[in-house]
Amino acid sequence: MKNILHDLYHGRFSAWEHCPVRTAESIATNRKIEDEKRYFMQKMSLDDCQRFQALEDLYLHSSDFEQADAFSYGFKLAIMLMFAVFMDKGEPQCN
After folding, report:
1. Distance set, CA 47 to CA 33, 37, 82, 86 (Å)
2. 22-to-40, 45, 66, 70 alpha-carbon distances in Å
């Protein structure tokens, strides 16, 4: 625990640098998305392609907000769980 806190303080640890695990399913889904995007962009005018790209950029930006919110919520939930564990002074009870 001390090493993580030390690394966090010195900027050697960033939660957003975590690389997601790539599964065969996620790779296939991303490939399908790219194929569909390519299909539609071939059919569009240059102006429509630029607007489509701008729309995609907006979706990515929106996703960043959602991911930051999910991270914050998860972090708070973990802290509340830790707090509850440390505040419970009793022995585990079996029913």
Report:
1. 21, 15, 53, 59
2. 26, 34, 20, 20
Six-digit token string for 82: 């830790």
Please check the confidence at residue 90 and state whether its pLDDT lies above 80.
no
pLDDT tens-digit readout, 13-70 = 776 667 778 899 999 999 999 999 999 999 999 999 999 999 999 999 999 899 888 8
Compute CA distances 76 → 15, 67, 73, 90, whole Å.
Answer: 14, 14, 5, 24
CA distances (Å), origin 23, targets 20, 26, 27, 61: 9, 5, 6, 24
**Can you read off the two tokens belonging to residue 39?**
């299909």
User: What whole-number distance in Å separates Cα of residue 65 and Cα of residue 57?
Assistant: 13
